[in-house]
Backbone:
């Protein structure tokens, strides 16, 4: 699929400042009250299920990652290598990930029929095709609403180097919109202002609360509740600012993860998961390789592979993988055909994602493409199947419904089903 | 480059002479090692004018035309024998068919005769039966026709079976005959091609005998093409002028006979061959592939196999160069190392460290003392072979960009060549990138002066063409440089040394990734994305070509 070379759509969604997000969250109408199965969510929250998405923006090539076809016309110059799971081979560009394959499952039969960056990203993050007049919540917001403890001071959805928009939470409300750590930095203004003392701050908060209470006696609305909640949340977040202290990674860790943005972002994600954040999205960009696909993939995957593998290994060593779902995905794959610029173009017809961690059967492979990777020949699935699978992997019932404004909305596409073959 | 002719030297002005004298007085290598040349932002300090000798007569062209004519004649002679052999087979098959047809006819005739006999015997028997009935009332003895009645039906059945079998056999033979007929026709057609080629080469021989030809890129025309099953990625013509060699985006390497276009595929590598080199004084070829291995081949073998297949680099091998004396081979790759190997023993002799980024090209200087390497960021390093030490650095960073929008490093020394006299070197790639992920930039060649290390010119297309200049090469005799490249379409450009815009250019049917001049200096090959290697000619047009053009224009 030819790309309009302005192809920057996958980048354009991503610039939302933290303060904008939290303010929007604070002002939310929380118009989804009663739409979830509260008891179930609470139960799950107590089980501490967490999710990490590695978002490879631009569309990583399945042939250079999870579904190599060495020696074929479409295979490119790279070889396939064995992994820690006998019989499962992946690209030689992922030698470290190959050693973690027993923690990962591959879905090689994805056909989303979508070659546009924005639409592809929407399908993969909502499990549905875009429909006019209705917006489904994104994965991060969904799991924030389902899995994050309601009284947690922590944001339910944090995006590290992957951008995000307040629109992602849709009817779930801005409380579940992403908190975006722009450029991988901690949010601003977490520290108390230098001119304030703790005592003075407490007095200010008390005064604000009293004024608010007086106001509410006459004009109590959903808005006023949210205002109050936002101040409480902000105070709670300031109380837990330790989760954003990214200055204490050991030299050894920095060495293991790599001295680049993505390595640091992975370390940040590890810390956020350790501190109990429900959903973390880590971005790694620049896979939209219409030209020089192989050189760019050497460079990009060379950066991605080691920290990604170290992240999985660390979560396993720390016992976090038992309750953390890992998803490595993007908006689409890349064409098997190698173009005249030695590039690969957009390809939603036959591509792959990798999953791991809680609820996932390590080493499992679902789906198969033909010899040259141009077609799914076994177990063709789409974003809907994947959404059901994510839900079930963290112990949620994917067949339940949301009730925004009292209207039932299926949580995952009812025409699809979970990939039981990769579920533990 | 040729020496200045006395005629031309008269035209050299006084300032030029002064400049030349100053230039010649400079040391062979710069005094200060590891000092980079001026940055692209500074104005070029050209050592101008670069001598332009005009069209140089190519003495060896006649030899190669004669070689081609001889090869075509030999191939035609072989083909004549092949045609005769197939024709003989066809004749034998035809005779056999005729014999079978005759047997069938005779057998059918026999069946007819036997049938008639049987009929008669049956009638006789009938008569006998009737007579026998009468004879019951008579004392005369009767003789029956019994033997005929018993034997003939069996004989007829046998004959009919024989006919069926013969007819079946006839059908198979006729099919075989038709196939042979096709083969004869094809062989005759091929013979016609060889004879035509022979005649065409003879026309060139005659033409070159009358006057030594000169290469004229203005006359550039495609004269032959060679097909593979994958996009072709690298190419060269061997020193003997026998083969067109090409690496591909696949594991198989190609050797085509230039005249007959017969292809031999060389198996050994497990990835793409982007670079290889030849030893002009022997039949040795050394290839480097993206799986990190280098291989030694004997080009003259009927079916070449790797004589050595060595793990040379971690990751892509991107550069391979055989030393002028044929004793060393230098390789370079994504592991940022330059390695020097013994051609004879295939043992590693030296590893040169210093590049910080992937090395895209390496080349021996014709003087044999130095080696030049270039990397992703356009950093060029001159190494002294004997000591393995870096002597100088040159700035080719105009061929590199970090695209801030796409966060991608784009560029590299995609093509590199040193003029045969060692006075100049050129690198090629993509400059002024506006979109790294779409490969949008200006195809660029940078020309350097070897002696001073100064950049003489940045050469780009004359129009707004965008893409990458994948390969560059100095003409072996003339004062021009050729380069190939493209993005969605392909081009060949020709610049005079030191000039920034090409004096001629031609569209190619597909994007070419590499080029090489034929040792005759009149022809050149390109390796293209559309799985085709193309042979172009810059020679004066032969009478048959002129006639073809006339016929074509008449048709229009």
Residues:
């Amino acid at each position: 699929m030819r790309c309009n070379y302005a192809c920057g759509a996958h980048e354009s969604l991503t610039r939302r400042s933290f303060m904008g997000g939290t303010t929007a969250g604070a002002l939310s109408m929380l118009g989804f009250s009663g739409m979830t199965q509260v008891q179930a969510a609470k139960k799950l929250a107590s089980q501490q299920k967490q999710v990490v998405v590695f978002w490879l923006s631009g569309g990583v090539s399945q042939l250079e990652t999870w579904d190599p076809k060495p020696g074929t016309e479409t295979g490119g110059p790279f070889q396939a290598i064995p992994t820690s799971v006998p019989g499962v081979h992946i690209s030689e560009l992922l030698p470290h990930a190959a050693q973690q394959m027993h923690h990962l499952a591959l879905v090689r039969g994805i056909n989303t029929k979508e070659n546009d960056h924005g639409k592809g990203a929407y399908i993969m993050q909502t499990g549905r095709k875009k429909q006019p007049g209705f917006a489904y919540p994104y994965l991060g917001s969904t799991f924030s609403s389902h899995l994050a403890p309601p009284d947690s001071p922590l944001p339910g959805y944090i995006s590290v180097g992957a951008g995000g928009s307040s629109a992602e939470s849709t009817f779930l409300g801005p409380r579940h919109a992403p908190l975006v750590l722009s450029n991988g930095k901690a949010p601003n203004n977490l520290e108390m202002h230098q001119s304030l003392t703790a005592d003075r701050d407490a007095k200010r908060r008390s005064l604000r609360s009293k004024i608010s209470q007086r106001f509410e006696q006459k004009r109590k609305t959903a808005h006023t509740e949210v205002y109050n909640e936002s101040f409480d949340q902000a105070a709670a977040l300031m109380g837990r600012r330790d989760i954003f202290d990214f200055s204490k990674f050991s030299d050894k860790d920095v060495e293991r993860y790599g001295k680049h943005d993505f390595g640091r972002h992975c370390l940040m994600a590890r810390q956020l998961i350790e501190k109990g954040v429900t959903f973390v999205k880590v971005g790694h960009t620049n896979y939209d390789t219409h030209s020089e696909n192989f050189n760019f993939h050497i460079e990009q995957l060379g950066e991605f592979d080691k920290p990604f593998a170290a992240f999985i290994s660390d979560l396993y060593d720390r016992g976090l993988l038992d309750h953390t779902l890992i998803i490595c995905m993007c908006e689409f794959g890349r064409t098997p055909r190698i173009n005249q610029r030695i590039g690969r173009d957009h390809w939603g017809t036959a591509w792959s994602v990798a999953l791991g961690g809680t609820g996932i059967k390590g080493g499992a492979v679902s789906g198969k493409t033909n010899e040259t990777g141009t077609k799914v020949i076994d177990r063709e699935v789409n974003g809907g199947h994947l959404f059901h699978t994510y839900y079930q992997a963290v112990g949620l019932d994917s067949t339940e419904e949301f009730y925004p404004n009292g209207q039932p909305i299926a949580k995952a596409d009812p025409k699809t089903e979970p990939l039981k073959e990769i579920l533990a | 480059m040729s020496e200045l002719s006395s005629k031309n030297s008269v035209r050299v002005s006084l300032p030029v002479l002064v400049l030349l004298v100053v230039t010649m007085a400079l040391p062979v290598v710069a005094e200060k090692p590891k000092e980079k040349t001026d940055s692209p932002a500074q104005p070029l300090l050209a050592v101008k004018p670069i001598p332009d000798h005009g069209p140089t007569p190519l003495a060896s062209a006649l030899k190669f035309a004669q070689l081609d004519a001889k090869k075509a004649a030999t191939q035609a002679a072989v083909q004549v024998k092949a045609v005769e052999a197939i024709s003989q087979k066809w004749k034998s098959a035809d005779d056999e068919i005729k014999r079978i047809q005759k047997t069938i006819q005779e057998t059918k005739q026999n069946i007819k005769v036997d049938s008639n006999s049987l009929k008669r015997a049956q009638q006789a028997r009938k008569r006998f039966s009737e007579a026998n009935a009468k004879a019951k009332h008579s004392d005369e003895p009767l003789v029956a026709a019994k033997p005929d009645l018993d034997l003939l039906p069996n004989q007829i059945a046998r004959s009919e079976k024989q006919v069926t079998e013969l007819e079946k056999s006839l059908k198979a033979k006729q099919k075989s005959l038709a196939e042979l007929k096709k083969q004869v026709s094809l062989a005759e057609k091929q013979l016609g091609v060889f004879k035509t080629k022979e005649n065409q080469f003879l026309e060139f021989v005659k033409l070159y005998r009358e006057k030594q030809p000169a290469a004229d890129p203005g006359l550039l025309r495609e004269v032959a093409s060679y097909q593979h099953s994958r996009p072709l990625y690298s190419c060269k013509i061997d020193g003997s002028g026998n083969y067109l060699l090409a690496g591909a985006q696949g594991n198989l390497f190609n050797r085509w006979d230039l005249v007959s276009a017969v292809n031999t595929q060389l198996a050994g590598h497990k990835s793409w061959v982007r670079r290889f080199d030849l030893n002009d004084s022997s039949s040795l070829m050394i290839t480097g592939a993206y799986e990190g291995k280098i291989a030694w081949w004997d080009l003259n073998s009927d079916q070449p196999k790797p004589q050595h297949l060595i793990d040379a680099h971690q990751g892509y091998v991107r550069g391979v160069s055989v030393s002028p004396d044929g004793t060393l081979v230098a390789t370079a790759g994504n592991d940022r190392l330059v390695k020097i190997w013994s051609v004879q023993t295939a043992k590693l002799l030296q590893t040169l460290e210093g590049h910080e980024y992937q090395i895209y090209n390496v080349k021996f200087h014709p003087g044999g003392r130095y080696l030049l390497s270039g990397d992703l960021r356009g950093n060029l390093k001159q190494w002294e072979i004997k000591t393995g030490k870096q002597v100088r650095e040159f700035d080719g960073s105009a061929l590199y960009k970090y695209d801030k929008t796409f966060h991608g490093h784009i560029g590299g020394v995609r093509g590199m060549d040193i003029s045969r006299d060692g006075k100049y070197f050129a690198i090629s790639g993509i400059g002024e990138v506006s979109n790294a992920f779409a490969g949008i930039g200006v195809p660029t060649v940078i020309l350097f002066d070897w002696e001073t290390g100064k950049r003489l010119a940045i050469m780009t297309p004359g129009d707004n063409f965008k893409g990458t200049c994948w390969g560059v090469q100095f003409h072996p005799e003339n004062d021009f440089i050729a380069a190939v490249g493209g993005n969605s379409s392909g081009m060949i450009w020709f610049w005079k040394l030191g000039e920034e815009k090409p004096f001629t250019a031609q569209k190619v049917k597909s994007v070419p990734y590499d080029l090489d001049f034929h040792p005759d200096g009149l022809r050149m090959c390109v390796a293209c994305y559309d799985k085709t290697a193309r042979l172009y000619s810059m020679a004066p047009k032969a009478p048959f070509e002129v006639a073809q053009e006339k016929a074509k224009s008449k048709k229009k």
In short: The interface with chain B takes residues 3, 5, 7-8, 11, 58, 70-71, 73, 77-79, 285-286, 288-292, 295-296, 298-299, 338, 340-341, 343 of chain A (CB under 8 Å). The first strand of chain A starts at residue 50 and ends at 56. Chain A is about 35% helix and 15% strand. Chain A has a mean pLDDT of 87.
